[in-house]
Amino acid sequence: MQFLQPHSWREALEARAAHPGARPIFGGTDVMVDLNFGRKRPETVIDLTRVPEIREWNREDGLLRIGAGVTYTRAITELGNLLPGLAMASRTVGSPQIRNRGTIGGNLGSASPAGDALPPLYASHAVIEVASTRGTRRIPVGQFIIGPKRNVLEPDELIIAFIMPEAEGPQQYAKIGTRNAMVIAVCSFGLALHPESRSVGACIGSAGPTPIQPRDAENFIEDVIEEHDLWESRAEIPASALDRFGVLASEAAMPIDDVRGSADYRRHAVGVLARRTLTWAWNEHRGVAG
Amino acid sequence: MKLRLMVNGESRETEVREGESLLYVLRERLGLFGSKNACEQGECGSCSVYLDGELVCACLVLAGQAEGSEVVTVEGLSEGERLHPVQEAFLEAGAVQCGFCTPGLIVAAHDLLSRNSEPTEAEVREALAGNLCRCTGYEKILTAVQMAAETTP
After folding, report:
1. CATH number reported for the structural domain that contains residue B42 in this entry
2. Which of A136, B18, B133, B136 is deepest in the core (most CB within 10 A)?
3. Chain CA centroid to CA A231, Å
4. Could you report the per-residue pLDDT of A87-108, keeping only the tens digit for each?
5. What is the CATH number of domain A2-164?
6. Both B38 and B63 in a single domain?
7. Which residues of B4-31 are buried (b: 16+ CB within 10 A; e: fewer)?
């Protein structure tokens, strides 16, 4: 096995172009497990921890552009106020040791439907920036991830950053697991209220081949809010509408039975999480505790 | 390939294979057996060390990633025979049963107390969530961390 350690983005892209089958590594929380257990032994590993460009985040054209190498710990401490949904999701990842090393870029690269950082990215319509020596392209997150552990990254491309708007309203993330720490989600749900564009973003995690945006549920609740003029009045969303939102979210899930949970359980739980996260976020929009 | 790094304040150099972990380097190349090898997937925390000041699982760090870095293991916390207050507290509270998880827990507790000198019980539980004790001696471990918080300057 060959170990490459580029010190700039340019060098990283050249290394990747020269070794198209190479496996990029940052926090190692996925790659090292494969190596330690001898599951996959790539010919070449490219360490991205020394590439300064992907550790940075900044504002660009009114949006946040966040380097793929920003860890969960940094998403919590540095971006908690700007992206509360992503910070909540990051807090549910692994343990302090894992959050110190694991990155959101890694979640995108691994493309597991259970990736905790993914639902908040879908709920705020994040765009993924990938690059190769041939050039750069930007892909909406929903088109970037195309199947279980599959994304559209070409063999010579690397994920450099993701771009998403700063929160303009309350955001929530909820996850079901067998304990509060160190669990891969049985299922999860991310939700973001966008009062300026008068829309609701939602995403189901770990209950389908990819994270799933429940469009019928989003459209339904947007119509209810509009019809009753709730963005302005900040009155309660009728209980029947909250229930219906949960049912539509549940219907959008495409879960399977596996070691972490049954499809039936996941479908039910997605509905519960959808209703709860919407209730919490809406209460925050109304300025009501809980 | 050659790997150079600082371990517990000492400059070390060793030959490593490209695919091995920092944990393997510490134990098998440098003879530091304090960090334990158990799950090799970041689940158990028994290989917890500091890498450039950050708490990490050494099993999830590829050897080459530590090139030029500063590593502190449980061996680096005491001053010679004088134990660190966190270590003293684990002894005092009887927080050690088989002892396998102890080095990782001590490093994780040390990290917590360096950031938060008066943690609540919930904060201790959260900070130690990535460290498993196979003897399930968690109550005394929690007691030890609270004792250490009181005695750590």
Report:
1. 3.10.20.30
2. B133
3. 26
4. 999 999 999 999 999 999 999 9
5. 3.30.465.10
6. yes
7. ebebbeeebeeebeebbbbbbbbbebbe
- What parts of chain B have a pLDDT lower than 50? none
**B96, amino acid identity:** V
- b/e map of B125-148 (b: 16 or more CB within 10 Å)? bbbbbbbbbeeebbebbbbbbbbb
Closest Cβ opposite residue A182 in set B60, B67, B130: B130
Residues of B with CB under 8 A from a CB of A: 1, 17-19, 21, 40-43, 45, 48, 54-57, 59-62, 64-65, 67, 108, 111, 126-127, 129-131
Q: Does A97 touch chain B (CB under 8 A)?
A: yes
Q: Which CATH number fits domain A171-286: 3.90.226.10, 3.40.30.10, 3.10.20.90, 3.30.390.50?
A: 3.30.390.50
CB contacts of B111 in chain A (<8 Å) are 96
Supply the ipTM of this predicted assembly: 0.97
pTM comes to 0.97
Contacts of B55 in chain A (CB under 8 A): 96-97, 100
| A136: pLDDT strictly greater than 60 | yes
Task: pLDDT band for A262, please (50, 70, 90 cuts).
Answer: very high
